[in-house]
Design a protein that fits this description.
With about 210 residues, the chain is mostly helical. It is about 85% helix and about 0% strand.
Length: about 210
């Protein structure tokens, strides 16, 4: 009777049991491995998504600045909607951009306010247009405290170059025209400084953010 009990125990636990347990282990492990590989591949996708989110406000910034330059060159008008669009996109840029702290955001607001006050003073004396003041203020907001000096310098250089190109024909006419006629033509000839402001904003602001 003991021999039969032993034989029954052996028949109830065959040699294939270790193989079955290993197969069960792999059956459970394969979904876990698949899930790990999925999340391991999902992390770079999220990183790429954040990079693409950084480009959304920058693309809007470039498009609106280009629109401002074109409209000012064509009609000597910078639409208020362009300036409002730049100001509306700036908080999104601060939210999704990497490396910009809240303190830097408040510093950018301070720089923009200072530029607006100085521009308003120049506007009151007839030295600059109101649209130019608003566009330069929005450009300063995007440049931030670190790039505001570069923005102002590049704007001054491009504005001077643009004035030289557009007013050079008047200087050539000065040789053959009376002084009164030349003065009247100079008053009628305007310089679209919005082109210089928008170009300087694109040159100064985009490369650091894209890098």
């Amino acid at each position: 009777m003991r021999v039969r009990a032993t034989s029954r125990i052996k028949s109830a636990n065959p040699r294939e049991e270790p193989g079955r347990s290993s197969r069960r282990f792999w059956q459970v492990g394969e979904p876990l491995a698949a899930g790990y590989s999925f999340f391991n591949g999902f992390a770079p996708a999220c990183e790429n998504m954040s990079i693409s989110l950084d480009l959304v406000p920058l693309a809007g910034f470039a498009g609106l600045m280009t629109t401002a330059a074109v409209e000012d060159f064509r009609r000597f008008v910078i639409p208020n909607g362009v300036v409002l669009g730049l100001c509306a996109l700036w908080p999104l840029h601060i939210a999704v951009a990497s490396g910009i702290s809240l303190a830097e955001g408040f510093a950018a607001l301070g720089c923009a306010a200072a530029v607006f006050v100085a521009g308003a003073l120049l506007f009151s004396r007839g030295l600059i247009g109101g649209g130019d003041v608003k566009l330069l203020t929005a450009a300063t907001l995007w440049a931030g405290p670190g790039l505001t000096p570069a923005l102002l310098i590049v704007t001054a250089l491009l504005g001077g170059l643009l004035s030289l190109v557009l007013l050079a024909p008047l200087a050539m006419r000065a040789v053959f025209t009376s002084a009164d006629a030349l003065t009247g033509a100079a008053k009628l000839r305007s310089v679209p400084y919005g082109v210089a402001i928008a170009s300087a904003a694109l040159i100064v602001t985009l490369p650091p953010n894209l890098n």
